[in-house]
Design a protein that fits this description.
By secondary structure, this protein is of the alpha/beta class. It contains nine helices and eight strands. The structure holds uracil.
Length: about 300
């Protein structure tokens, strides 16, 4: 179970985790604050049950510090403080429920082995430079599936798709434009690992990663797919590099209607260089027209459901 921690809860959980890890002789290595928070929130139940177990177990003897290897000028290490079983948050922490997508345990089970495989994937050179494997996230029963190109810097650090500046714009398009909570769509990328310097994916990288995305699409079985940018569009449609003009028309991915939208990073770049007095660009207006068409199609395909 995942809990959302406030600041106090985070510190308490961190303290408890470190005490337990020291005691159990394991290392807990935070990679970034965000991932630390996520890891802690996800391990709260573990920490609580370990803490309970430790409270009734005798303490493991602490080996003395290697004094003989310390310079004589250094003082011997202070004796470690007496062991106090870690007390956990339960009563002291305010747990805020996450706005999480509804669970679909059967679909989760279908994807779990592949997701585990992806987390250790060494199918292409990107495994040498990635910090995270960005699997994707969202509602496994989503009617809309958004597919980007590859994780960028923020996504690589956080392990989630579209969380940086272009992610915020994508969230606005989904929530303000389409009026759908982000947690009710599914978001993934053609590549699960960040290409160095955010260069375009290479064909062998796309090929090595394809089976993950194929299974995600097959499992989610969305009513509509939205490819974000030409790179994602070409990869999904199996078109060669350089093919342009993919927007504006409905296409198909294995029988599922697919629409290519401008990539949010392109929209942001355009805003920096070609915005009108209202701060909008021609690309924004075109995207809005695309969004209206997509929502119309979605209503047609799934009448009776709020789109
Ligand atoms: N750009 C993408 O194509 N995908 C992300 O997840 C983030 C930025």
């Amino acid at each position: 179970m995942t809990h959302r921690l406030d600041r106090t809860g985070l510190l308490l959980a961190l303290k408890a985790r470190l005490e337990l890890d020291a005691d159990l002789g394991v290392a807990f290595i935070p990679v970034s604050a965000v991932r630390l928070e996520k890891a802690l929130a996800e391990s709260l139940d573990d920490i609580a049950s370990l803490a309970k177990r430790r409270a009734v177990m005798p303490r493991r003897p602490v080996s003395p510090p290697p004094l003989d290897r310390l310079k004589p000028a250094l003082k011997p290490a202070a004796p470690s403080p007496p062991y106090r079983p870690a007390t956990l948050p339960a009563a002291r922490v305010r747990l805020v429920p996450l706005a999480e997508p509804p669970a679909n345990p059967e679909k989760e089970e279908v994807l779990a082995p592949l997701r585990r495989e992806a987390s250790e994937c060494r199918g292409c050179g990107l495994c040498e430079t990635r910090k995270s494997v960005v699997w994707g996230e969202g509602d496994l029963d989503a009617r809309l599936m958004f597919i980007g190109e590859a994780p960028g810097r923020d996504e690589d650090l956080e392990g989630r798709p579209f969380v940086g500046r272009s992610g915020r714009l994508l969230t606005d398009i989904i929530e303000k434009g389409m009026k759908i909570p982000r947690s009710r769509v599914y978001i993934a990328n053609v590549l699960k690992c960040r290409p160095p310097g955010d260069r375009n994916p290479l064909p062998d990288e796309v090929a090595a990663c394809a089976r993950y995305l194929e299974k995600q699409i097959e499992t989610v079985a969305p009513a509509l797919i939205i490819a974000l940018g030409m790179v994602a569009g070409r990869a999904l449609l199996g078109l060669p590099a350089g093919t342009s003009g993919l927007r504006k028309r409905w296409r198909e991915y294995r029988g599922v209607p697919l629409r290519v939208l401008y990539h949010p990073s392109y929209l942001l770049r355009q805003r920096r260089s070609a915005a009108g007095p209202d701060g909008r660009t021609e690309a924004d207006r075109e995207t809005w027209a695309d969004v209206l068409e997509i929502m119309g199609k979605l209503r047609e395909m799934t009448p009776g459901e709020n789109a």
